[in-house]
Amino acid sequence: FFFKQKTAYEIYQGDWNSDVCSSDLSAQAIQSLTSAQAQALTTDQIKNLTGVQIANVSTANIALLSATQVQALSADQVQNMTTSQITNLGTRVGDLTTKQLTGFSKADIAAMTSTQVAALTNSQLSSLSKAQKAALSYAQISALSGDQLNSVLAS
User: Fold this and answer.
1) What is this structure's pTM?
2) Buried b vs exposed e over 72-81: b needs ≥16 C-beta within 10 Å?
């Protein structure tokens, strides 16, 4: 019989992921997560993070979150994200639900890149508040398709 022996790193990762209760992690511990640890967070662990913990996830680790992890965030958690974190989501802003987008401030919308705005679906764009829509820059609006622009102009 042959058994694959786990490396020390695999054992460490497995132990960390199974033993950690995300709500017990301090803001400093959240800030210190390695990229592998951030990527290993389960959707349940992400759902249990507090607003303070979300605000302390490094922008580098935010950039590494999968679409599934991004979708696991609540609207309240998204509201606690910093503008830098939202910018580092990149085009995965298109993976957010319309409810999650309600957590974006006007400054968050204004800080999004044109590519990020273009990644939003028609449904997401039409769900933006008037204040959020007013925060869109000329460059952001110019990046939209005709259908997307109609979604922004609707309602």
Assistant:
1) 0.74
2) bbbeebbbbb
